[in-house]
């Protein structure tokens, strides 16, 4: 089977690589991407620290995948939609959602802490691949409404084994839906390596089977991702239908803080991927162009630190959600059964509040 | 000169039509699509063919391929895509070809469709209707005759209803489409084209609310509660029992989630006896739930235990055995006898 030639515009040292298919994005776009990478990396570190401090229940880090995260948000226009997963906190934040609202899910305060319609970001999906079908539906809705809205849907390599992944690609292709699927192939589904998910020459090949372009891109190369995803979004917006993009990347951190990655991968393997850090590569390129200097870098770092400090302060306030919320949004129109159950919980809580006084 | 007198039977007013359940559903869908251009129909064979039961007959021709979509053959895909369409303001009506094929879509229904409103604190409404032809008695091969409604009634966030006559078929499908919550709409498939059930449907009438049970025959000796295809069985049983001077009250549940049991409680307080009837297996079912609630609310009114007449706790049998599986008039009357003899 024919190999797909991976799109790469920057090598591991930040040197520009010619690719006859995709032009290098303009420097100012990449400087802004670098700002986002610095911010995203800091958010990953801060959220992981907040788990250790007991402020978050869990955090699936995208450390190492920041280029995919920030580019997925950056290529979208204001009216476009993003359909993220639990590992895509950085992408959601870069789309403009307050990190405190995003982390509501992982804090255990509510299953989704932001308004999806306002931000045009679907709730983060915890099951694998279910969101891809929603993305196709939302994309087809744009067609029916006569909009040029594009939907970008994220998933990982493990999700490509799920039936919904295949149904989503097929529906998207049959409907020529304006949707871009970005598979972040980070090599592991918790502990199970890619070889146990697929023996296809690449995950991007799967697009070809469904009748859509399949593009393999270096997932740690922000320039290549910007070019590839940007082109896919433009094609979708112009009525050219869906694209499957596979980003070749790596999950540097464990699956979550509850995972012990040393049981299934070696330190050497992680170290080799750490040397392909997307920040290092883009920084070297931009410093070489003299469009990024110490002052600019200090500015980005300070902004990222300020974000982290604000997040720490916000999450220090750990008042639990109101118990009444349990019943508030089960259905758009409430039912008598739920009203009765809510009343019974209220009575139970009232009795608990009275009890200590009586004991006194 | 006096105006000629016309019999309304010869010349029905334009708003009244004599319809089967199937035709009433078809006209209900049509009315919903005319009233709101955000209403879409999607599923397998719903376009040119009009669905394997012809419930969507003519809709694609009149509303176009954009509003009546033949989808690839994948139930999770149909429902997942409908969720995405609803997120962007549409009101999709999905047809599942037979109830036995709904399960590839079960994850999208139970984990996504049912929970999106809750997860987003009401930020996203998902007014998706899933139409499900269900029930047995059509002599079909396996996976074409089941009654899985209890599985869906168990899931918080969904609403589950079932129609049993043409008037309800016409109105309930429109009300379900207008509802801002996801609705599983169970249709008694063996009665779709039943001439015996044909009834005048007044399309200008004011319909009953969607989420309300209805007493369809008044009586005083015992209460029968049923829904969907079993309502006819109970009405036939009540007619037969009347010959023996037994007065059976029949309640058509109509809504399975949320349940509307006040009419049932009121009835049981008068009759003291309740028999619940359904084709579904009995264990952990709608009929179990009714029994539990009635003993809680009507304990001192009960003259006998609540009895259940249901399918057996087996997989749906081959068609040559289904007459032994399906609750019929005799089985219902036998239960009435047991309740009276308690």
Automatic annotation (TrEMBL), chain A:
It is an enzyme of class 1 (oxidoreductase). It comes from the Bacteria. Its cofactor is thiamine diphosphate. One of its GO terms (biological process) is branched-chain amino acid catabolic process. InterPro entries: Alpha-ketoacid_DH_E1_comp, DH_E1, THDP-binding. Gene3D superfamilies: 3.40.50.970. The keyword Protein biosynthesis does not apply. The keyword Oxidoreductase applies. Transmembrane segments: none annotated. It catalyses: N(6)-[(R)-lipoyl]-L-lysyl-[protein] + 3-methyl-2-oxobutanoate + H(+) = N(6)-[(R)-S(8)-2-methylpropanoyldihydrolipoyl]-L-lysyl-[protein] + CO2. Residues 44-306 form the Dehydrogenase E1 component domain. Its EC number is 1.2.4.4. Keywords: Oxidoreductase, Pyruvate, Thiamine pyrophosphate. It holds the Pfam family E1_dh. GO terms for molecular function: branched-chain 2-oxo acid dehydrogenase activity; magnesium ion binding. Belongs to the BCKDHA family. The branched-chain alpha-keto dehydrogenase complex catalyzes the overall conversion of alpha-keto acids to acyl-CoA and CO(2). It contains multiple copies of three enzymatic components: branched-chain alpha-keto acid decarboxylase (E1), lipoamide acyltransferase (E2) and lipoamide dehydrogenase (E3). This is 2-oxoisovalerate dehydrogenase subunit alpha. It comes from Prauserella shujinwangii.
UniProtKB/TrEMBL annotation, chain B:
This is Pyruvate dehydrogenase E1 component beta subunit. SUPFAM superfamilies: Thiamin diphosphate-binding fold (THDP-binding), TK C-terminal domain-like. Keywords: Oxidoreductase, Pyruvate, Thiamine pyrophosphate. One of its GO terms (molecular function) is oxidoreductase activity. Residues 19-194 form the Transketolase-like pyrimidine-binding domain. It comes from the Bacteria. Pfam families: Transket_pyr (PF02779), Transketolase_C (PF02780). SMART domains: Transket_pyr. Its cofactor is thiamine diphosphate. It comes from Prauserella shujinwangii.
